[in-house]
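re: the backbone from monday

yeah here it is again, tokenized this time
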């Protein structure tokens, strides 16, 4: 089973001017370090995070494998070769994707990142704008991690995959509510690093200037458990790729 997200965005505290902004309608999802925002020095870690949520109402337990797949848009780094280690965490509070888009003219149903309502780095009650919601809390336990170097990519569209089987099983067996997942990189080499992935809003018809990038947004692939007794050896080897 292949699922697209029902909500995806990133939250940005890399610059103080960005922490009140909502990016729910943006075509790109970023994980990045700091550019001096929030008192974190330039080149520090964890300046931009991704939030994703999938509707799992059609998924039945048990499952054999669940994979989160994101597709590269581009890197925006100080140096050409940088290491990333992106962790997946379980979000523990509800959040609103919002309708913010950074680049005018804004697609239908979207508006600028400042007037937009929705989740942001900092929102109402925490020193942010009244129309924004502070980014949700998350479980500090790491559900999955993926390490890669920017030079490993084969170009826009390169797929990066995280094993989120335990997390998804927890949701569908009601061990905890499904508020989605958060992705961040807490590593740093002292320089600024940023990796962008295509969001569910990336549409070639809406963003003709992004034709060199990928159109495939986030995917959650869920594979059900299959009885080994009912399979040939060839099918046994392919159990998790059905």
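seq for it, each position gets an aa:
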């Amino acid at each position: 089973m292949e699922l697209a997200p029902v909500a995806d965005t990133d939250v940005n505290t890399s610059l103080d001017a960005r922490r009140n902004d909502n990016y729910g309608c943006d075509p790109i999802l970023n994980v990045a370090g700091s550019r001096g925002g929030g008192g974190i020095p330039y080149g520090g870690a964890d300046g931009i995070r991704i939030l994703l949520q999938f509707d799992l109402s059609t998924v039945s337990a048990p499952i054999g494998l669940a994979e989160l797949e994101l597709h590269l848009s581009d890197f925006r780094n100080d140096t050409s070769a940088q290491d990333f280690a992106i962790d997946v965490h379980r979000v523990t509070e509800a959040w609103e994707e919002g309708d913010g888009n950074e680049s005018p003219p804004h697609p239908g149903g979207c508006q600028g990142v400042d007037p937009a309502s929705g989740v942001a780095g900092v929102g109402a009650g925490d020193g942010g704008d009244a129309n924004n919601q502070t980014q949700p809390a998350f479980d500090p336990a790491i559900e999955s991690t993926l390490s890669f170097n920017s030079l490993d990519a084969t170009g826009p569209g390169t797929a990066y995959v995280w094993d989120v089987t335990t997390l998804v099983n927890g949701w569908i067996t009601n061990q905890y509510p499904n508020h989605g997942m958060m992705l961040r990189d807490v590593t740093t080499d002292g320089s600024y690093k940023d990796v962008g992935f295509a969001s569910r809003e990336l549409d070639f018809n809406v963003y003709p200037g992004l034709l060199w990038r990928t159109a495939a947004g986030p995917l959650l692939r869920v594979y059900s458990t299959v009885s080994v007794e009912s399979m040939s050896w060839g099918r046994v080897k392919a159990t998790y790729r059905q």
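DSSP finds two helices and 15 strands in the chain. Residues 227-242 have pLDDT under 50 and may be disordered.
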